[in-house]
Amino acid sequence: MLNENVIRRNELLARKTIKGLESRNMSGYYAMTKKDALAQALALIPEGSSVSMGGAMSAHEIGLVEALKDGNYNFIDRDQYTDKRAAMLAAYDADIFLSSANAITDDGIMVNIDGNSNRVSAIAQGPKKVIFIVGMNKVCPDLDSAMKRARNVAAPINAQRFGLSTPCSKTGACMDCKSPDTICCQILITRFSRHKDRIHVILVNRDLGF
């Protein structure tokens, strides 16, 4: 259970971040619990929709992936594809793409780093709707701190998670490497959505993902 003061702080910070998202032609929502986040996400996904995703741990953590697999949805599960490229290409034509953010500023700018770049490319273009599940632990005060979080928190943890031989997996901090295993190949900064109602961000009053 979160401290009451933390809850209040997160509510105020989320309100500011949602206002920032709205000024950037994106929709923001605040969920007090993982259960609330799941309900909000499902409300944005009509039954029968084709749904794909990047490696969004946050979507797993709120139970969204399991709900989609069990429900009346066409969930494109790349783990079930022998041809991973085919799964990635199918994502671009999906109704819904699920993601998280490596970091988000409190005025609504999102930062994402990718190795294969299927995730950041789908965020930028392709799927009709993109739904982000973002824990409040990822909210940063400005773009510089968001970039630092993405490179020095998210990237090293993900490199360790995938067993990659990068300097950051050994030191825990970005070394601006050019290792063959680097996962910092493409960096996407999402500062505005040209298409209204395409990008939806659910902020969750929990620590989610990395």
Structure description:
39% of the residues lie in helices and 20% in strands. It is α/β, with parallel strands linked by helices. It has one domain: 3-Layer(aba) Sandwich (Rossmann fold), CATH 3.40.50. The strands form two sheets. The chain has a six-stranded parallel β-sheet with strand order 1-10-7-4-2-3. Strands 8-5-6-9 form a four-stranded mixed β-sheet, sandwiched between helices.
Keywords:
single chain; 210 residues; alpha/beta; Rossmann fold; 8 helices
Sequence-ordered SSE layout with sheet pairings:
Blueprint: H1 4-23, E1 27-31, H2 34-43, E2 50-53, H3 57-61, H4 64-70, E3 74-75, H5 84-92, E4 96-99, E5 103-105, E6 110-114, H6 118-124, E7 129-135, E8 139-140, H7 143-161, H8 167-171, E9 186-190, E10 199-204
Parallel strand pairs: 1-10, 2-3, 2-4, 4-7, 5-8, 7-10
Antiparallel strand pairs: 5-6, 6-9
Largest sheet: 6 strands, parallel
% residues in beta strands: 15-25%
Poorly predicted runs of 5 or more residues: none
- The number of E-state strands comes to 10
Briefly say what this structure is.
This protein is α/β, with parallel strands linked by helices. It contains 8 helices and 10 strands.
